[in-house]
């Protein structure tokens, strides 16, 4: 019987284990996890009737793999979609007040987020030619295609909302591959988006289905923790918790030894690392120093999640949306605030609301080091400014991620290709996790499927 050791029981490790178990049930899979619980970033804290997602808030249905995973685990009936209002309304905090992100052409024309010159520049995007065939930053891409204002408002908001990063450093090709591909294929992002929407409508019509809805966010009444616990329970060998892997060692016969931080060692025919890149770097250090150096160069941001609950009556705003993003050119303490109980009403008990502020990010990493009191004071000051919330919260919960989201800086795809080429020199060593091919849960579950197929080919 072939043996595989997977390091890390986040979504990447658990999904890879589950998919491989389905394809090749005879492989003995051991998942090692340094924490006492599974889930990695994705976990739901429950207290006083509030449910706080300490990492991801949910997943989108714009890629099929997480949805398919939930269904294959028998969780299809328990999925809940974000409210209509959360899908429709998003806000930006710009120049001291909340402004609606335009959801239609009419709303765009009447919005005061861009000047007339900025709007014209945006509309001219479809007439501009393709750029040079090389990677560039999100900021450079947005400026080139749609002008300075679009870069400073919309591109910054997109980067802040998804990556908590710097648009002048993040790679358009790695961080937003679809947008880069649309330019390449259609010569214009706007033309490409319109053509894809037309195609999706035509495909739905041909199948006799209703026109497709824009992507929605999904989770469970019990939060994402349900997905992680179900994955854990469905593995034929439950993950071993409390094991921090510190190194791996290649044996003369081609097998591997995986060394935990205690005296425990595991022998394996293959090893899959799904822990963060800096941990992967430490683990492969003795096997291949150059590979370790390459892995160590993938940067991470820092984020503190500050969840605050209020009595509904203490918040006068309608809370009719997903929440707001504060573009980081202003270098605010907060990246934005998600109105969790407006997205999924189950997140707060009756008569209460739950907000989740993401603080710090690439530009304000020091904020994450503030103590809880200072962090909460900063969030309350921001809520006062943006949403006129003066009341004292009835619930609070702070979580710090010292290395939260890997930052795909310009050249990331080449960096990953070099890493994969180097790792391929070591037969039986596989690298996964969110450091390479996308940070969203969907990217992790998609990549887990790819790795499960590669592992089954290698091991069976
Ligand atoms: C604040 C925040 C908000 C986010 N919001 C969203 C969102 O709304 N939607 C979305 O799609 N994505 C979101 N993401 C991104 C997404 O959550 C992550 O990319 C994804 O969960 C990463 O999963 P992973 O398994 O690759 O890594 P991780 O979740 O980091 O799991 C890695 C695991 O490896 C373990 N480990 C580390 N070192 C060792 C070792 N030496 N030995 C053994 N185990 C080890 C860790 O303890 C951890 O459990 C968010 C991320 C953060 C931080």
Key phrases:
460 residues; alpha+beta; FAD/NAD(P)-binding domain; Polyamine Oxidase, Chain A, domain 2; 3 domains; five-stranded parallel β-sheet; binds flavin-adenine dinucleotide
What would you say this structure looks like, in words?
It is a single chain. This protein has 17 helices and 22 strands. The model has no long low-confidence stretch (mean pLDDT 97). A hairpin with a 2-residue loop joins strand 7 (91-94) and strand 8. It starts with a strand and ends with a helix. The protein is α+β, with helices and mostly antiparallel strands and 460 residues long. Bound molecules: flavin-adenine dinucleotide (FAD). Residues 7-13, 32-35, 40-42, 55-59, 244-245, 274-276, 279, 303, 305, 401, 404-405, 433-434, 439-441, 444 line the site of flavin-adenine dinucleotide.
């Amino acid at each position: 019987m072939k043996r595989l050791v997977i390091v890390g029981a986040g979504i990447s490790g658990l999904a890879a284990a589950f998919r491989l178990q389905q394809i090749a049930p005879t492989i003995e899979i051991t998942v090692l996890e340094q924490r006492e619980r599974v889930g990695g970033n994705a976990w739901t804290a429950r207290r006083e009737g509030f449910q706080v997602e300490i990492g991801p808030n949910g997943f989108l249905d714009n890629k099929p793999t997480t949805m398919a995973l939930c269904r294959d685990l028998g969780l299809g009936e328990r999925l809940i979609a974000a409210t209509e209002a959360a899908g429709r309304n998003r806000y930006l905090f710009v120049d001291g007040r909340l402004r609606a992100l335009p959801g239609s052409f009419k709303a765009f024309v009447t919005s005061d987020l861009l000047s007339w010159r900025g709007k014209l520049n945006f509309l001219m995007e479809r007439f501009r030619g393709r750029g040079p065939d090389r990677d560039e930053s999100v900021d450079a891409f947005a400026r080139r295609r749609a002008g300075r204002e679009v870069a400073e408002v919309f591109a910054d908001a997109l980067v802040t909302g998804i990556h908590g990063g710097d648009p002048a450093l993040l790679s358009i090709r790695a961080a937003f591959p679809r947008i880069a591909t649309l330019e390449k294929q259609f010569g214009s992002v706007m033309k490409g988006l319109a053509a894809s929407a037309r195609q999706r409508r035509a495909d739905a019509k041909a199948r006799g289905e209703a026109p497709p809805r824009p992507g929605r966010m999904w989770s469970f009444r019990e939060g994402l923790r349900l997905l992680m616990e179900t994955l854990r329970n469905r593995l034929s060998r439950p993950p071993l918790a409390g094991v921090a892997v510190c190194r791996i060692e290649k044996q003369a016969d081609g097998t591997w030894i995986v060394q935990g931080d205690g005296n425990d060692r595991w022998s394996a025919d293959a090893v899959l690392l799904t822990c963060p890149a800096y941990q992967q770097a430490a683990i492969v250090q003795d096997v291949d120093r150059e590979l370790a150096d390459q892995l160590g160069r993938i940067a991470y941001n820092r984020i503190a999640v500050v969840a605050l609950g209020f009595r509904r009556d203490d918040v006068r705003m309608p809370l009719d949306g997903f929440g707001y993003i504060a573009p980081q050119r202003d270098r605010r303490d907060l990246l934005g605030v998600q109105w969790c109980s407006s997205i999924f009403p189950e997140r707060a008990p009756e008569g209460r609301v739950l907000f989740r502020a993401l603080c710090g990010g690439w530009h304000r990493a020091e904020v994450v080091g503030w103590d809880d009191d200072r962090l909460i004071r900063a969030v309350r000051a921001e809520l006062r400014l943006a949403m006129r919330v003066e009341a004292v919260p009835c619930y609070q919960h702070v979580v710090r991620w010292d290395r939260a989201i890997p930052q795909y800086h310009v050249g990331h795809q080449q960096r990953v290709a070099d890493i994969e080429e180097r790792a391929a020199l070591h037969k039986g060593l596989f690298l996964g996790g969110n450091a390479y091919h996308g940070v969203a849960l969907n990217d992790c579950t998609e990549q887990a499927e790819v790795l499960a197929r590669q592992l089954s080919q290698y091991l069976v």
